[in-house]
Every structure is written in structure tokens, then in C-alpha cells.
Amino acid sequence: MIRALLLVLALALLPGAGPAWARTAEGDRVRVLYQAAKAPEAQAIYREMRERRLLEGLRETLSVIRLPRPLTLRLSECDGEVNAWYAPETRTVTVCYEFIQDVQNRAPKDTSPAGVTRHQAVMGPVAQVFLHETSHALFHLLDVPILGREEDAADQLAALILLRLKPAQARQIINGSAFLFASYGAEEKPEKADLADDHGLFQQRLYNLLCLAYGSDERAFGYLVDRGDLPK
Ligand SMILES: [Zn+2]
């Protein structure tokens, strides 16, 4: 399935883009929008993400993909809802300030026992969630056939995009995302109905992410197996 996805995406890349993901003039097909917030907590996140130029960074990452129609990446206040989604009718990926606040609440004050810094534990999942929702958008805009579950495919494509970043950056985002999946996973008490959900369990999503990372570069991600995060 990953190969099929990559093939379709490769067709959307500029010819001659080579193995490194080069920037294209199509980058302006991705619009970014930081929506003003009312709640003080959301306002603080709004300011922080603007200063970090989060959305501009994501636009840069996506600039290698030639989109047939514009896509909007948006940060928004969501009436207290911890959420993120892609809306096909407006071709908009929305991540709520409330989601980022939840991620901040779960992040270590300084550094986790496994060495994940607060910055990584916040920015990693934010990037992963944006890329997961953007993957839904790419499936829609590029008419990508999905052979399995779309939620799994969105996680896989998000991971593939992350693993194409500079190695240190990829490692930080993978470690941060793994921290959040593990945090959610620790609270998960799966019932029968959860097995019928369109998402995998968080523990499964965690292992899938780590497995893709390890499989992409055994040396760079060997520590995941060495310290037992990923079973042999
Ligand atoms: Zn999804």
C-alpha cells in the first residue's frame, strides 16, 4: 500500500525533483491561516505558533507536492473541543488550539525519562497531526486509491513525509509523536466497539510509527529497539 501511495505521490512531484524533496513553485497552493482566539490559553498558543512559523514550515514541507487545487492549513479555536480534521468541501485542514493545549498538558515539564524534551513532545505531535490530516486531504485532492483503512494510510503517509525531513528533525518529531501516542495509549482501555473504530488503537498507531521509522533507517532509529520501545 505504501508503494502505491508513493507512486501516486511521485506522479504529483515535479519532474526531476530527485531523491531530496525540493521546493516547487506550487508551494503557494497551500494557504496558511492562524485564526485569532478568545480564550487566554488559546491566545497564548496562537502567538507561540505564529512566532514559531509552524504553518509556514508545514507549507514548505508540502511544497514538493503539486496540488490540483489550493489547500488551507488552519489553526482555530474549537469551543473547547480537542480535535483536528480535514473538511473536503472547503479543502481545509483544521487543528484546534485546544488539541495543542492538551498536548502541552501531557508534555513533560522539562524532559521525559526517555529523553524527549518538552519542545519535542509538543511540536512533534502537532506536526504529525497536521500531516495526518493533510494526508486525508492529499487522498482526496489527488484521488489516491486506499487499499486498506484510510486512517492507517493517513498515519503511514504522515510518517513517510516526516521520515524525509532532515534526520535530526525527523527523530525529534517521531520521538515527540511517540510520546503523545504512548500517553493516549496508557489511558486506553479498549472495548469490543473500539476494534470496530476506523482508527487503530493508540498503542497500535505508536508501534506502526516506530516500525516505519526503524524500517527506514535501522541505524538512526536502532535506539527504539535497544531500549525496548519497539519489540524485536
Ligand atoms: Zn484521520
Describe the structure in your own words.
There is one protein chain. With 232 residues, the protein is an alpha/beta fold. The chain has one domain (2-11, 19-226). Helix content is 52%, strand content 9%. The chain has helices at 2-12, 40-52, 54-62, 97-106, 118-141, 150-162, 167-187, 202-216, 222-226, and strands at 30-34, 71-76, 84-87, 92-96. The chain has a four-stranded mixed sheet. It is globular, with a radius of gyration of 17 Å. It starts with a helix and ends in a 6-residue tail after the last helix. 34% of the residues are buried. Residues 10-22 have low confidence and may be disordered.
Cα gyration radius (Å)? 17 Å
Order of helices and strands: HEHHEEEHHHHHH
Strand content: 5-15%
The number of helical segments is 9
Report the biggest beta sheet as strand number plus sense, adding barrel if it closes.
4 strands, mixed
Poorly predicted runs are: 10-22
Terminal-residue CA separation:
23 Å
Bound molecules: zinc ion
**Reading side by side through the largest sheet, how are the strands ordered?**
1-2-4-3
How many runs of DSSP E, i.e. beta strands? 4
Mean pLDDT: 90
Q: Could you say which overall geometry the principal axes of the C-alpha atoms support?
A: globular
